[in-house]
Design a protein that fits this description.
Blueprint: H1 19-45, H2 63-86, H3 90-112, H4 121-136
Helix pairs in contact: 1-2, 1-4, 2-3, 3-4
Length: 144
């Protein structure tokens, strides 16, 4: 028979992860899923004959695949930062905030130049809520 030793509960030197941090990570992962689908779709459009794409035809071999690759890289960076945020890495928090700012800027430009319609408001709000939650809990990254 094995002797049962009473175990003492593990001491927590760090406060528990706030729910807002977990929400940001989940929101980021959901957003990167959509970003990956869009990036993959744009990369796939690069293999379609330009005459089949109508107005996008002239740009289908250069700009569209480049945009798709950029979206896939942004999705990969977002996933990396989301994991870092869950592991309480302050540079990952700043990286996620920076990626959100760049994406929001791109969405606003797309709206201003009428590349996309009013549906671009959804990612801007999504990023805004996630950034606000991260900023609200920034002291958690310092161990406070």
């Amino acid at each position: 028979m094995s002797a049962h030793r009473p175990t003492t509960p593990a001491r927590r030197d760090q406060p528990a992860r706030p729910g807002g941090i977990t929400a940001v990570a989940v929101m980021t992962l959901l957003g990167t899923f959509v970003l990956t689908l869009l990036g993959g779709g744009l990369l796939a459009l690069g293999s379609v004959a330009p005459e089949q794409l109508g107005p996008l035809g002239a740009h289908s071999t250069t700009v569209v695949p480049l945009l798709g690759g950029t979206l896939l890289i942004a999705a990969g960076l977002s996933i990396t930062c989301a994991v870092g945020v869950l592991r309480r890495r302050k540079p990952a928090m700043y990286g996620l905030l920076l990626l959100g700012a760049v994406t929001t800027f791109g969405c606003v430009l797309a709206l201003v130049y009428q590349v996309l319609g009013p549906q671009v408001i959804v990612p801007v709000l999504w990023i805004g809520v996630g950034s606000a939650l991260l900023w609200q809990h920034r002291s958690w990254f310092d161990g406070e």
